[in-house]
Amino acid sequence: MCLLLGAAGVGKTLLVKRLQKLSAGDGKGDLGDPPPTRPTVGTNLTDIVAHRKITIRELGGCMSPIWSSYYGNCHSLLLSASCVLLLGLLSAEELAKASVLILFNKIDLPCYMTVEEIKSLIRLPDIIACAKQHITTAEISARDGTGLSAVLLWLQEQHKCSS
């Protein structure tokens, strides 16, 4: 199981839909126009096939108070979140062995900060140095598909030996 967590409005649902479409093809095809999305109320389960079936559980941002009840079956974590949320998730014992991919989404927006600016702002190198988890970062645009092949490859790597 892969958990997809983040605040409301960060593009989690669009990301899952795009990954699903990307995994259905050869991983390089044209994604076309972004599909319509609606805010997630509760949870969505989506299976993608990346050499093997990977189930992504997207939890709506409004569910953050009970996210911890879903940590137990988590092998990997896709995260689009604030610094405070990141620190809380990384300190959860149930997630100590999960691999973490921090997503810097919406790079297609004209006011987007660079990854280096964001890393500096939230002191990400210090957070990574203290974390128990293996942490990777990715710049993406769920809207235009930039970086999604790398996310799919990361998921494949994290789940190739898991059950």
Task: Describe the overall structure.
By secondary structure, the protein is an alpha/beta fold. The protein is built from 5 helices and 6 strands; from the N terminus they run βαβββαβααβα. The chain has helices at residues 12-24, 83-90, 115-122, 124-130, 148-159; strands spanning 2-6, 43-49, 53-59, 76-80, 99-104, 135-139. A 6-stranded mixed beta sheet has the order 2-3-1-4-5-6, with helices on one face. Strand 4 (76-80), helix 2 and strand 5 form a beta-alpha-beta unit. It is globular. It starts with a strand and ends with a helix. The mean pLDDT is 90.
Radius of gyration: 15 Å
* Main beta-sheet strand count, sense and barrel state: 6 strands, mixed
Rounded mean pLDDT is 90
Quaternary organisation: single chain
Percent of residues in beta strands? 15-25%
Number of strands: 6
Q: Provide the succession of SSEs.
A: EHEEEHEHHEH
Poorly predicted sequence stretches spanning 5 or more consecutive residues: none
**What best-fitting shape do the alpha-carbon axes yield?**
globular
Number of helices: 5
Q: What would you call the structural class?
A: alpha/beta
Amino- and carboxy-terminal Cα gap: 9 Å
Helix percentage range: 25-40%
